[in-house]
Amino acid sequence: MALAVLQGVRKTYRMGDEDVHALDGVDLTLERDELAAILGPSGSGKSTLMHILGFMDQPTAGRILFEGEDVSHLPPDRRAWYRSHRVGFVFQSFNLLPRLTVVENVALPLLYREDAGGEAAREARAREALDRVGMGHRLGHRPTELSGGERQRVAIARAIVGRPSLILADEPTGNLDTRNIDRVLALLAELRREGIAVLLVTHDLAVAEHASRVITMRAGRIQEDRRR
After folding, report:
1. Which residues contact 31 (CB under 8 A, 6 or more apart)?
2. Which pLDDT tens digits describe the chain residue by residue (228 residues)?
3. Which distant-in-sequence residues (6+ apart) come within 8 Å of 117 by Cβ?
4. CB 90 within 8 A of CB 29
């Protein structure tokens, strides 16, 4: 069974007297074990597609199946459940809280999980996630004491601590040098091999070529869908 299936998905915004079609009839099937990159210019619909797949927004029309369930139009509390249980997010700007330690940042999403246990259990899971990305030696440091590549690895640990089925990575290499770009992409590829689907939004064709599938968007539609 595919992880996510989008059928004729549209997203329309009202801007003054005009309707803007951010997504204009998108059909897409995302498998559980693939690393897919989405390319396209600004305004092509990349971010809107990611927001909908991440349960941060809902389509205006169309149907979405996630793990076999129709999630096209969910109430806010149910969307919040999917965000905290089934999806992990990685951002270009890391979005780490500077006053918290590395382990505290990674454990933070588990505060919203009813099945995560107490503080000790949450910290244990955060340590496990940090070990997986090679940051187990930096538990007590704060984000300002880390390099850009280290901060992004911490952000990936935070994304996987909830054991999601989908990772959404929005320009995760945008603030990194070449060496750290390669390291982050290798981590994402490793997650894919473990059965976690990864959807990577990027403007960089060289980054997209690390993916098993490259989806090009333009004007709210999928222009090309190429498996490598």
Report:
1. 2, 3, 197
2. 799 999 999 999 988 888 889 999 999 999 998 999 999 998 899 999 999 999 999 999 999 999 999 999 999 999 999 999 999 999 888 899 999 999 999 999 998 887 878 889 999 999 999 999 999 998 999 999 999 999 999 999 999 999 999 999 999 988 888 888 898 999 999 999 988 999 999 988 999 999 999 999 999 999 999 998
3. none
4. no
Structure tokens at 119: 């503080």
CA distance 107 to 129: 9
Domain ranges of the chain: 33-57+76-227
- For the entire predicted model, the pTM comes to 0.91
Residue in this structure with the two tokens 């590549």, named with its chain if needed: 149
Q: With respect to CATH, is domain 33-57+76-227 assigned 3.40.50.300?
A: yes
